[in-house]
């Protein structure tokens, strides 16, 4: 599949390229991204080069991982503000398809609703029969990643529980939260925000 742009009035999603190497290397060195994702830690420029020149193009070509750089509205090559991905997880042609959404946000772009807007665009495409046509889109995050959980909550993902020692991270299995979104689910919170969540 050829990479394509998703956009609305709030955000633009375009394929990240080698021109984004320095920015991605800078952002992925952030301790918060290292704490909650599977990016290498410490993260160096060579990691960004491998991600942008090999992993991203291969994912699109094989139609297994669809990765976008999140940029300001109207800009297809502006600074990377976040990264958004849809990974096809199960299914074969003619069978129901499932996938997973993942994202990170640069420190200087947090708190403005950018990731929520980008995730909405990506999720809608993934679940649209005219898009990727998934029957289930899941979200998972390591327990304690409340910012990521808030994005999923805003999009209507339904929390399904905590999976103990489920999510791998650099050789360790961590407890993980799991939630899902189906094609007909409303794209709005499906339940009250958890009482145990920290205030923000």
Automatic annotation (TrEMBL):
Source domain of life: Bacteria
UniProt cross-references to Gene3D superfamilies, sorted A to Z: 3.40.630.30
UniProt-listed PANTHER family: ACETYLTRANSFERASE, RIBOSOMAL-PROTEIN-SERINE ACETYLTRANSFERASE
Domain spans labelled N-acetyltransferase: 11-183
Protein name: RimJ/RimL family protein N-acetyltransferase
Residue ranges, annotated region (Disordered): 181-200
Pfam families (alphabetical): Acetyltransf_3
């Amino acid at each position: 599949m050829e990479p394509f742009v998703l956009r609305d009035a709030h955000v633009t999603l375009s394929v990240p390229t080698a021109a984004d190497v320095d920015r991605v290397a800078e952002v992925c060195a952030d301790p918060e991204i290292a704490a909650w994702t599977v990016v290498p830690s410490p993260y160096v420029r060579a990691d960004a080069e491998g991600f942008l020149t090999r992993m991203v193009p291969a994912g699109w070509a094989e139609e297994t991982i669809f990765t976008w750089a999140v940029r300001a509205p109207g800009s297809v090559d502006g600074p990377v503000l976040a990264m958004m991905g849809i990974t096809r997880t199960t299914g074969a042609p003619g069978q129901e398809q499932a996938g997973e959404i993942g994202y990170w946000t640069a420190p200087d772009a947090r708190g403005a609703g950018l990731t929520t807007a980008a995730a909405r665009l990506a999720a809608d495409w993934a679940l649209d029969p005219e898009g990727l046509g998934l029957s289930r889109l899941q979200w998972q995050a390591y327990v304690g990643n409340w910012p990521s959980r808030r994005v999923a909550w805003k999009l209507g993902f339904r929390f399904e529980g905590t999976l103990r020692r489920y999510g791998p991270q650099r050789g360790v299995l961590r407890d993980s939260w799991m939630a899902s979104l189906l094609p007909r689910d409303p794209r709005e919170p499906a339940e009250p925000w958890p009482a145990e969540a920290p205030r923000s």
